[in-house]
Design brief:
Length: 502
């Protein structure tokens, strides 16, 4: 930013920066060695063993400062919490004068000994001080006070959600409690990896840039490779490449990856999202249901020491087993009529009769999906497996062993949201080609989210793929559920946002 565009506070801070440099202070040194963090001191310090904290070095961002002539109190915040620092002119000499140029938001390092003030607050008495980074742009200031019950009341909080999403670094500084959401997100993924690795399944990486996209019904992002002179697509799913690895002889592979879909944004959709897909040879969707149930229950009980999680005012129980309900029965229960097996025209009539907005140009697959999303899905609050989908909704799933108009597929719904999707994978190359060609015809009729024919994938299936179970989990939605968040943007560090200036 040019100085001519800066506000008065920023210009004043730049003046302070200049004064510090003139006094020989390097406002941006290369490193600093710390011995402790705030949480460790606050948890372990005791008056009877104060000598254990007689030599402590901390670093953190100034979040509050009170100057009183020859003494100054400030609070610094590190990755673990906040702690008070006591600065005394007699101890710090010229650095006490330098700190007159410090502001809220500056990052400092300090050494000293820990004591308890007359007010009972654990505090570091600084015997040395150094500036680690001068903050030129002010951070939002949140005022805190205690009510009569000792609860913290925050005033002027940085609460504008749009600005919090756009400037997540400020959100993390001013609202440090949100770090717990992202720490738990990391732990969910770690527990998932641990569960899979313990069973001998291999974590792999597949291409993000693909000559053809597939594995889901979605509109892709398109880019161009200059050296090859070809358009490429950001992947919409991992499925087709992971299945190639099963063909190649691996018996269990999984990938935790970023996928990209050129679609609208709402509370459960971001164009860039994280998913986990796993494929295990010689298994079917019934086995995969059992495995997923064990996986989710294990993650929940490991992280929360309970099988119940509160989400948006509802207690979600992950006690096994989860109910398993046929899609056909759920359609009848919530629409009052049989839906599966109906023609496109009949589905349009059912949608209108049940007050579901649809377009006459939609395929039967899309009509079924919309009726389900509006009439059935919101009622699936506790973990529920929806099983046995109509074949037209699942181009990559194996036909049901007892009913050829259905496929062996399930989705896991929790709190009205789809969390996971799984199949007994289609490994009949003739049937697979027929279904992809049908998708191609739907695409030609105007549905730009329908799948394309991938000849290399079909060739891999023709080489021979063993019976295989496949599963995809929406990591972002699972984390939303477990962290009591109602928007996908709350569990993404940097969600996609509309430009501020249009």
């Amino acid at each position: 930013m040019q100085d001519t565009e800066r506000n008065e506070q920023e210009l004043h801070r730049l003046e302070k920066l200049s004064l510090l440099r003139s006094a020989g202070v390097d406002p941006y040194p290369v490193s600093f060695d710390k011995t402790h963090d705030a949480a460790e001191i606050l948890e372990k310090f005791s008056d009877s063993e104060a000598d254990k904290f007689s030599s402590v070095t901390l670093a953190g961002r100034i979040m509050g400062i009170r100057r009183m002539g020859k003494a100054t109190f400030c609070h610094i915040q590190d990755a673990t919490g906040r702690i008070q620092i006591y600065l005394k002119k007699d101890d710090l000499g010229e650095w006490y004068e330098h700190q007159q140029q410090f502001d809220i938001g500056d990052i400092i390092g300090t050494s000293g000994y820990v004591f308890r003030t007359r007010m009972g607050e654990i505090t570091l008495h600084a015997t040395s001080l150094v500036l680690l980074a001068k903050s030129v742009t002010p951070i939002p200031v949140v005022k805190e006070e205690l009510d009569e019950s000792g609860n913290v009341i925050r005033h002027d909080a940085f609460a504008d959600k749009e600005q919090r999403y756009r400037k997540r670094y400020l959100d993390l500084i001013v609202n440090p409690h949100i770090k717990q959401t992202f720490i738990l997100r990391s732990r969910v993924i770690s527990e998932m990896r641990r569960f899979f690795d313990a069973r001998g399944w291999l974590e792999v990486e597949t291409p993000i840039l693909q000559p053809l996209y597939g594995g889901a019904t979605a509109r892709p992002f398109v880019t161009h490779h200059n050296a090859l002179g070809v358009d490429l697509y950001l992947r919409i799913a991992d499925e087709l490449y992971l299945k190639r690895l099963i063909v190649g002889g691996f018996e269990g592979v999984y990938e935790i990856s970023k996928n990209f879909r050129n679609e609208g944004m709402d509370k459960t959709h971001n164009p860039e999202f994280t998913s986990m897909e796993i494929y295990v040879a010689y298994k079917d969707y019934l086995w995969m249901m059992d495995m997923l149930e064990e996986l989710i229950s294990t993650i929940v009980t490991t992280l929360f020491a309970s099988n119940t999680v509160a989400h948006q005012g509802t207690d979600i129980s992950f006690a096994r087993p989860f109910p398993r309900k046929k899609m056909s029965e759920l359609f009848v229960e919530y629409t009052g009529t049989e839906v599966i097996g109906k023609s496109k025209e009949e589905l349009i009539a059912i949608a209108r009769a049940t007050k579901v907005d649809v377009e006459t140009s939609w395929s039967a697959m899309k009509l079924l999906d919309e009726i389900f999303s509006v009439k059935v899905q919101p009622n699936l609050i506790q973990p529920t497996f929806v099983i046995d989908y109509p074949v037209e909704m699942s181009p990559l799933a194996k036909k049901h062993r007892s009913s050829p108009e259905l496929v062996e597929r399930f989705e896991l719904f929790i709190n009205g949201k789809e969390i996971a999707n799984a199949f007994s994978e289609l490994n009949d190359p003739i049937d697979q080609r027929s279904r992809l060609e049908e998708q191609s015809a739907i695409r030609a009729a105007g549905d730009d989210e329908a799948m394309v024919v991938d000849e290399d994938f079909l060739h891999a299936i023709e080489v021979g793929m063993p019976p295989t179970a496949g599963l995809g989990i929406g990591i972002d939605r699972l984390v939303m559920l477990l962290t009591n968040c109602d928007s996908i943007r709350d569990v993404l560090f940097f969600p996609q946002m509309k430009p501020e200036r249009l």
